[in-house]
Protein 1
Amino acid sequence: MASIFQAVGAAAALSSSNSFDSKKFYLSSRKSVSERKGSIFVVRSDGRMSSGRVDKLVTNAVATKADSAAASTASKPGHELLLFEALREGLEEEMDRDPRVCVMGEDVGHYGGSYKVTKGLAPKYGDLRVLDTPIAENSFTGMAIGAAMTGLRPIVEGMNMGFLLLAFNQISNNCGMLHYTSGGQFTIPVVIRGPGGVGRQLGAEHSQRLESYFQSIPGIQMVACSTPYNAKGLMKAAIRSENPVILFEHVLLYNLKERIPDEEYICNLEEAEMVRPGEHITILTYSRMRYHVMQAAKTLVNKGYDPEVIDIRSLKPFDLHTIGNSVKKTHRVLIVEECMRTGGIGASLTAAITENFHDYLDAPIVCLSSQDVPTPYAGTLEEFTIVQPAQIVTAVEQLCQQ
Amino acid sequence: MSLIHRSSGLLKPLAAGPASLLRRPFSSATDDDATKITVETSVPFTGHRIDPPSRTIDTTPKELMTFFVDMARMRRMEIAADSLYKSKLIRGFCHLYDGQEAVAVGMEAAITRKDCIITAYRDHCIFLGRGGTLLEAFAELMGRKAGCSKGKGGSMHFYKKDGGFYGGHGIVGAQVPLGCGLAFAQKYSKEDHVTFALYGDGAANQGQLFEALNMAALWDLPAILVCENNHYGMGTAEWRAAKSPAYYKRGDYVPGLKVDGMDVFAVKQACKFAKEHVLKNGPIILEMDTYRYHGHSMSDPGSTYRTRDEISGVRQERDPIERIRKLILSHDIASEKELKDIEKKARKEVDEAIAQAKESPMPEPSELFTNVYVKDHGVE
């Protein structure tokens, strides 16, 4: 059983007794569910106490940026760019490669995109391939899907993911289901992308996390990028996929800088990214929360913990292979997400891990999510809405019971 | 009106005795193509911001017979679907098109299979017109493997990719933006083809329709929006749902044409005209004034919001098949008996297709999970 752990109150460090019921904790051994231990020590499933492990400090520091072994090839020099430029690079490479790839959205053409992802593309490819649409999400999303039915490969940009709620019918019924209801006759190779997530005081309607609403739609795939490297790689993979893919970007990550390879590469749509290998606990996260996790990881390492951080990237389907291997290693899971507590990605992930890896868990899965509230405008309130690094540190400590 | 040649020499040597020399059955003889018959549409076209086409149309005996055969087959299919539904072999929703056959047949006669058609859920006959078979239709209605969507779509999800038929959609109005997308792709690929996006008088009040129309007009997309106005949006009469039921005018800056949708020649002429227009000038709206004999769907008796007199009145005065029958008889192209034989043949075809469809098995359980995703790198 998983307990959804909610940090109520200030973003500052919480006292360990706050909203944490140690009685709810039970430890199950891997061998048999009936051997449940009522103690609150960190007990390895092979029976050993973990104290010896925790004393070893991991000296190689936690990276502040998303630069890990998985990210870039060390051998080539590469080039530095910002995340929105990486998205554009991926987009441009695919538009060069395949004349059927086109972009449509509000202000993507002459204006260059409200987040500059499509800057310079309209002069290069023309107004039809980089199409400025009127403010009509429902119908231009429908139009993209209709075009995709004939073989074109449109990329629909939602200026903010929240606006795509207006296109929900098209995304759910036509985008997701047409391949099935036509018995396989039509494929819908669209990419729907745009920024979402909580920004800096953008207000409730412009701070939404649509991945939780879209996740049940059968037939679509969902990925979330978090670094310039995976942004470009996922963009290219999404465009090449024959399935409809929703690519979630985050408003606050567009100016992240990273050095990425010069040579062409694609990220796998269904793969999670190992950000920081570790032994004590698996922290699963995606998009902006990755950075809050890594910030917390710095603190945790200094305190003697060895967290394994995985950026799940693929929101639908989950990469249960990578996640499972991690769970089997650490036996503890913390999910840190920006979705709201109710019905978010974390809720589904908790269920999936419990179903598949229950026997490997030494502790209930803890899920840190945003509050079930409309995102307030006031800065301090907005901070309380989302998960902050201090809460992550506290949660890890409590999960590991040190 | 020009006379028809009835020369026996050019006709196929079927088992025809001397008595039948005077009235030849429908045949593929070349002289039928050369024979010209001029007809007039029942009413002239009414234009909105456009000069309507002529109401005088040329046709041939062959075309007349083809129209009759096709519409008879469609009519028969829909009536048979009614019985199948009542025997619970068809479940869920079933929206029948009988009465509206002229739109499907007339449109098809004006275009090619490279032109696209997309419609809503009253799609069985359009599917047939685009080259779908009776077996595929009935099997799909009964949820069998041999159905055009492998049994996974149902009545509202008939598709035929190689026939340029893009469905088959359950949500009212959502197919119109899709249709503009088809037109967009046609313009993008620089094809000289057009898209007919069909919708009903109920869907005419959907916002996404006007959004799509705006975009189509803005970018001169080759989109023809066809309002099949059967005057009732399920149980609501058009005047109770629309402030302005002149649907052909609702495009405002987009030209429109009002067409007698029960007259297959009017439909053909309008569609031909529309195709030429949009390839040069951007979108146009066609309003087909048509009528459905059945209720909205099989669960609607169709008589609570309209009188039986109205229904039988339309059937008597405007039935599309009857109109063609009269034309055929008055031009001595075929006899009453021959036409009845054609209808019997259609009935037989339909019965055979139903029998075959009944033999088709239900989809395998594993089909539950196929076609959710396209088999792609790594996707299960």
Protein 2
Amino acid sequence: MGLARSHAAVVDVEDEEHKATLATGSESTLRQRSTGPKHTSSADTTKDDAPKKVITSVFTQTEKYNSLLTLAGLTAVAIFSRFYKIYAPDEVVFDEVHFGKFASYYLRGSYFFDVHPPLAKMMLAAMGYFIGYDGHFLFDNIGDKYNDNNVPYIGLRALPAFLGAMTVPLVYMTMREAGFPILTCALAAFFVIFDNMLVTQTRLILLDSMLVFFMMCSIYSYVRFYKTRNNPFSLKWWSWMIATGVSIAMTTSVKMVGLFTVATIGVAVIWDLWELLDIRRRLTMQQFLNHFYARAIGLILIPVVVYLFWFYVHFAILTNSGPGDDFMSTEFQETLKGNTMADGIYVKYGDNITIRHKDTSVYLHSHKHNYPLRYDDGRISSAGQQVTGYSHEDPNNLWQIYSDSVDNTKIGKQVKDKDVIRLLHVATSSWLLAHDVASPTMTTNEEITTYSSEEDGSRFNETTFQIILESGGDKLRTMASNFKLLHQATKVAVWTHSQKLPDWAFDQQEVNGNKNIVQKSNLWLSDNIEGKNASEIDQESVKAVKSRSFILKFLELQGKMISHNAGLTESHPYQSAPIEWPFLAKGISFWTENDTRKQIYLIGNPLGMWVAIASLAVIIGVSGADLLSRRRGFYPLNQDVQKRFYYATGFFFIGWMFHYFPFFLMGRALFLHHYMPALVFSYMVLAAVHGFIFVEGVDGPISDPGPETRPRQVQRAIVPVIAYATGALLMVIHLGSFLFFAPLSYGTSAIDVAGLARRKFLPQWDFHFAK
Amino acid sequence: MRNGHSSAVDQTGVPVYRGTQAAAATRESSLEHYSSSTTTTTRDAATAHHSLDKNHHSKKANDSDNDDNDKDKDSSRLTKFKSRRSLPWYQSRELQIVSAITLLAFIVRLWAIGYPDSVVFDEVHFGGFASKYLRGAFFMDVHPPLAKMLIALTGWLFGLDSSFGFKEIGMDYIEPKVPYIPMRLMCGLMGVAVVPMAFYTVRNSGHSIHAATLAALLVLFENSLVTQSRLILLDSPLILFTAFTALAWVNFHNQRQNPFSDDWFIWLFLTGVGLGLSGSVKWVGLFIIATIGTSTIGQLWDLWGDLKITPRSWLNHFIARAVCLIVVPVAVYMLMFEIHFLILRNGGDGDGFMSAPFQMSLGHSLKDSPLSVAYGASVSIRHQGTKGGYLHSHPSVYETGSKQQQITLYPHKDANNDWIIQKKDGSIPEGLEYIKHGDVIRLMHIFTHKRLHSHDHKPPMTEDENHFEVSGYGYKDFPGDANDEWRVEIVESRDEESGKFLHTLDSKFKLVHNNMNCDLFSHKVKLPKWAFEQQEVTCMRSAVLAKTTWVIESNAHPSYPADARLVNYKKPGFLGKFLELNKVMWDTNAGLVESHPYDSRPSAWPLLKRGISFWGKDQKHIYLIGNPIIWSLSTVAIVLYVAIRGLLFIRDKRGYNDDFNGLREYYELSGGFFFMAWTYHYFPFYLMDRQLFLHHYLPALYFAILLFSVTFDLLCRFIPNRIRLIAVVLITAIAVYSFRTRAPLTYGFEWTRTECEASKVLKTWDYDCNQYPDTYAQYTVNAVANTTPIENTNNNDNNNAIIDAFERINDELVVSEGEGVVDDVADVAAAAPQEAEAAVAEDAQITDPAESKLHDADIDPTFDFEIPVDNDVDENAEVNEKSSA
């Protein structure tokens, strides 16, 4: 690809050579004709007598009107396809559960946590605000009736549907700007309109239509930006670059998947810069750096600011305590109105406290039973008193907190960070102790037991623990402080895990000493102090809502989003592997209604997607053959066709790759709808490949001429009848396939068993009511 | 992107037709730059020369190229940097140097190899596998068999008693007369052989003797390589074969001007063999395959662009490489498995991992059974979704739920696996009535007369609300109840007939409980002790199909006609077994995600952040840690390489022609290859989720050391030999000093606390210095103390009360702490964690099929997803609700 690109990048500025080409070109063109059977460029014949003047557009006025008409028609169809019976079903469908709920939370201002950035959800909330929805409904279950609950759901659905429809003209215009003939552009738009997955996913209160819309905005802006490259630093150049930057930021603010769009644009920009660096572009280092800084501002700085801005709005709206509190740190929660942190009270030496494990919510517990001397696997234990994790409230959960000094002078003083403490089990009057004996189930970890306070105290050193506060200030406070208990003598942290002990410990959870002391699961928190509660003790000190700097809040939330997203590894019946997506091996059941046997089943347009994947294969085949033959000195493609092939089609192909392959590296549960962005690219590639095969030559030049640009040849593509015929055929196939599956996509009409069986092209498609 | 010059060709827009100009265009650069990381400036520049190129800088490049070529038409520009060997080989200085270094390697690597005389670290696994080879007992391991078979072979030659199981770390070798020294020597000798290979690899890449010597010495004095090659582990064979492959490839590359000559073929073939051997030791060997593969593609790409080479000739190049680098390694790899299968003829603890037909080839046998199944037949039913075995019952009851008789999965053949199929009402019809799809049946356990039964009780282990207990219920002549009824639904069949009628082996079926509409289900969850840790069987609603499918494996009925069609498993051929075993290895390997106290992430390796504790006893400790000097030199070399290449890359683009008179290509050729090898041996680990250890970096380290020696050669390019020699000596001396400082950890020797503290370069190195005494003299004192026999608690715990034991242990612990004497009890306590380390240790060779539940990736899909976090996961919950609604 390198050869083609470097050529194309210089073609406009180094026109002298271009002319030289023309002068000597006739012979080579002839030869070309004999080696390359297709693409006997129509432009060749007109080359010599073409007007040598700066041209602004290659398209005639009629063509522009035609294009506009086509665009309008396609947009109308797109809007119809998205809005058709948008009121049905009047029930909560699939992930509307979440995104509808989040919109409600925004309207209420109560804090929630989600793995996706806030923009799309705020847009939904704004939509709700404008149509007078007050956020009273919580979208709790799939199938909840909207009308019964007085929810203006049609308005909420209208936003994604509208943006979904607007994706279509963007696709058309992007293709058009990239220099494809009307037929090719229309083909791409048509495929995007009549894809079942895009229709289903954009008709509901979901994020993906926003994602795809902003993604197409980014691509469109970038194409426009690239076309102004002959006039760097002009107003137009800046505008389109900043538009690109804002769009990629908006995309990423909808879902983190937007980073793939950033990567797509990023690679193109880096490539462009690399070409600018080339000495033959005759840029001085200073000029190059200017280019670099300009892009850094427009494509890095501005996007970051936009992205942060949405989080700022997010925090500004969500000021009340809500269901998301528990995900955040103590400091964060304290910034929310009505948070529970205010209930925490400071723990003093001598208090009886309960200690709860943060992850598994069990209490540190002990009871008058000992570890068996010999375990089933033959290892022996200390046979000391059991220390376990117990999930219910119980007097045996109480521990009295002592300092490490024998004379207990500290009693009544507050427990501080890094204090060394001892814990006395109140019910059995024995000290918590860890020692170098293997724990019951994990031989790598230390046994935790207790040691009666009536003994001689010779094991004092083994009963001291350092308390390390991870959050919630530097004094131990109930509810607020997360802490680790680090055993002083052997440096293990008191830890528990969901593994149950056998019968001898009444199926309670194992507690042991973890050698990996940095693990997050070592955290405990003190639940309450026996006999005391905040209202009695700290009545006067009702905590005010604290403030925290935006950047800290942002960093915390972003970190939590990423780690939670990565943690979504549990399997799901409708999840699928990325390899299955292009072939549409599996769908997702969105909604079913038993009485009417209606259902919404998310599945792409099978025939369309299979044609698309074949066109992707064509790209790989053609570029591979082109590379190999050029390596051997043969030039099978017309130069302009080749340039368009690599630059436009190749760019869309890279878009597809970047929106598809990274999913292979993700460990989390993945779903078919993650393929949506890539799907749009694959349809654009499909149309472009169709054009590559059937359309002769290309329209050009399409980029704006700059001050240094010399007169350029006008070239026109010839769209033969066969192109229209095959294009129409593809459209008919696609439309037929769409209509065939439309009942499943819209969920407005029931299909009988036989009908479902007919639609079950692949055995893995698990429709409901299919038998 | 390969280069800037070629674009100049196309810039003109004239497709250059090179055919007719071939004669002119064949000014031949007799050198071909194969390394994929090398820019192929020469040829492109040359073609540019004939094109209408107008750029002055390319022009200049052309001129200088042509000058070069005029001067020495026949010899490569590269070869002038190579040594000229004039002496006969046996007198060559190289040989003397190599011999000396190798001799040194013998001493350093094999010194006191008999110590410690007990099982260390993963010897547990690899020694254990050797025993199993001698017994012929099938086992499952995540690594291919070659190195383990070599270890077993050594053991066999030196009379290893196969009853010694290498069960745990610290087991004594002396008493049972285990030939552990020869076994360790085998690995140790392989470690020794790496040293001369490093020398020749660098030397044959065209670098100076000094650089080659330095490479060999640094490989020699690398603590981690020494530690790793002194024990019965797989890494020293792996590194040896990897190094060998690299050497063979370098030699092959040196033959590039004589394609298809004998030497060319020999080295190409040996490269292929090396690839096969590396891959047969550990799958990490795939990285060297990727390295060579990329290099090969680079070569073929260059040859393709060389218009002097006809397509025909190119095809020959291609085929030769395909055969030697694809067919040969695959053949070697498969041969190893063939031998593996030939040796392991009997069943063993690995059976549970394999499918039923596979097990049939392991000494288990199954009688042919009649095809059709009729009411009244006694059958055994095997679960398909897991390798758990047969539907089983025995006269023990559940201790939870209904307290009725247990129903389990049991992996072995047993009379308790036999069930009689009855009609819905419990009767058995006269004559033969064959069972159809959709029939409702009852299953009666022959020995206990209980019927397979399910009801609304919670199952013993699984807490999910979709699961119900399955039990054996009734007694002899009990009429039965409706909860005994199961519907046979054939879900997968071999042919149409077996889709309609229940056929032995051919019909895979579900058993659907008629009343509750749940499917008979099993998963890799073990029942508690009271059910002998057999696998749990439940009845589950809306389960995934795979774990609810069953198949009739044996089938007998008194009145079957004598000529009934019989069926049996089709015994898998070698290929079937090979593929299945590899798949199981892959799945098991991917499942090794448990954390381990000494695991580490790849980002920590080049900085040597921490090591691995191998063994500790008697105040001595073996701890795998690298030589920080060598380690940092190698890492610096990597960084330097990236920096220099990056800088030159950008300068190229700006039109500077940094050729350095051919020097650049020369270093990029060898350095580039080593760098690529390092990259391929390092970065793929970032993609692995499984537990990783420092020793996974060792092959990459080897290449990084070679890269350092190349860098050294470059730096010393213009220095007189004498000073270069001094530099070699200096670097080596520092490395040796650093090696000596950490030698006690490497060999497990005596040490003092202060020396130990002093050796810690980074505070993240987590070996405990407190275990060492203050002076060496202390060791003798302790040795005397240790000879005093102390009663072992292990032997007499049966009679004493719990309290006694507790107190006694307690006391002894206190004593041991107080006096610094390590007594037996403390050992027991201390050894326990170590055992565990071994058990989960490094590559965690799983021998216990039960362990495989760790690797069971298929979790039931009916999880309650309560986390209100993610949309996608929550979709789950909703979907589930729907499906159960």
